[in-house]
Amino acid sequence: MAVVYVNRHVRYVQVLLSDEGSLLHCLTWETDEGVVFDVHALDDSSFSPKYDRIYVPFDQKTMTLHGNTYILY
């Protein structure tokens, strides 16, 4: 399981590196009830891009999805 740290206050595309070495691109924005972030990743085995849109309420700081744990700070 990879851990990815995401700065939820940045409003431009962040290039992130998971602790397992995966390169991710992430865009975040706030809604009235929480933070939404789009994560784009490239699968090392097939070179096919993967995309997830993740919603995290303001009172929650972590989200686990597809084997990655995203930690918002």
From TrEMBL:
It comes from the Bacteria. This is Uncharacterized protein. It comes from Marinococcus halophilus.
